[in-house]
Write a structure and sequence with these properties.
Length: about 375
Amino acid sequence: MDDGPLAGTSRSDAEDGEDAVAVEIHPTVAAAFRALDDAAVAWVLLRGVDDLAHPSGDVDVLVEPGSADRVDRALAAAGLHRLGVLGHGRHRFYFSWDPAERLWIGLDVVPAIDFGRFQHLRTPLAAGCLGRRRRVRGLWRLAERDEAWLFLLHLLLDKRRLDPSRREAARSAAHRVDATDPVGRYLEHRVGVGAAQDVVEIGRRADGREFSASASALIRRWTRREPLRVPAAWLATLAARALDLPFPGHPAGLVVAVTGPDGAPTRRLVQTLRTTFPGPRRVARSGLAARVHRRLGRLVLLDGGSRPGFRPDLVLALGPPEALRSPEGPASVVLDATRSPGEVADDATSAIWARLIRSMAPRGADQA
C-alpha cells in the first residue's frame, strides 16, 4: 500500500528554489507527521529539515495550543510515547526506539515559541508562524523568513554560542531576513529599537566570539524589559527541573535487573543504559529505593550485586551464549556478551522498550 509522500522522500510542490530539493524522512517521523494531520492538529516543523532521515536529536515541532490530548493519542498511534520530567517549560517529549537502525527517534513538541535555557523568554509568535506555514509535499514548514529568524534566535537565545559547523547556516539565514519581518518587528517591540537589525548583522558576520557576547547582551536587554515575568519563569522552571520528577500521568516505571557471571560488563551496561535512555531513570542499590523510583515512573536499573527483595519487571541476563541458560519467565531476555558493548546495549534497549510498550498497552490489548 502506498504510504503517501511522507513515506520516504518528500518533494516540494514548488518548481524552484530550496523547496524543490527532495527531503528524506525517517519512517517513524513520517508516521508521526501523518498522524498529526489525521488528528486535524495544526503543526509545523521548526527546524532540522535536513536531519529528518536519521535524526541526530529531537525533531522540533510547533503545534496549535489546546491540542495536547490529540497530540498524545496521535503520536502514540504512530509509535511515539510521551516520556520525561517536569522542568522543561511547555515542551512535551515523545520517543520511539528503532531496533533496526538502533536509534532513538524523539519529537520535541511545543504549543508556543519560547527561548532561553529554561524557556523563560516567552513570546506570542506561535499563532502567526502557524498561520504563515507552507505545505511542502506533505511536510508543514515555516514560512521561509520565519524559519530563518527562528533559527537565528535559537542559536542566540537557546544555544548562546555559534558552533563552527553552523556558521554558514547562520550566515545564510541572516541573508534571508529583514528587520521589518513579523519576527523582527516583534523583537524590536520586546527588546528595543535596533535589536532586529543587530541580530541580522551578527548573523551575517557569524563571528563566534561576537556571537556569544551578543547573545548575552540580547538576553540581558530582554530581561530588563520584563523584570518580573522573565525571572519568575526562569525560577519556576529551574525549581521544577531540580525536583527531577516525571510529569503527572507518566507511564508506570520499570525495574530492570542486569545479571551476568562477570560484574564489569553488567556495570558497563547499566551505566550505558542510565546515560542513553531518554526517560527518567535511576540506578538503585536497595529494594526500597527501587520501589520508590518505580512508583514515580522511572526506569530503575539494578546490577548483578543488587538484591531488591522482589521480582523485577524485566531481567537482562548477560553472558556467553554457551554458558547461559535462558531465565525462566516471559520477562527475561538473554543478551549475548560476545557481541560488542554497543550491540549489547542496543539489544538491552530493544528489550526494555518492548517491555515498556507492553506496560502502556490498554488491558486486554494483548488478547484482542
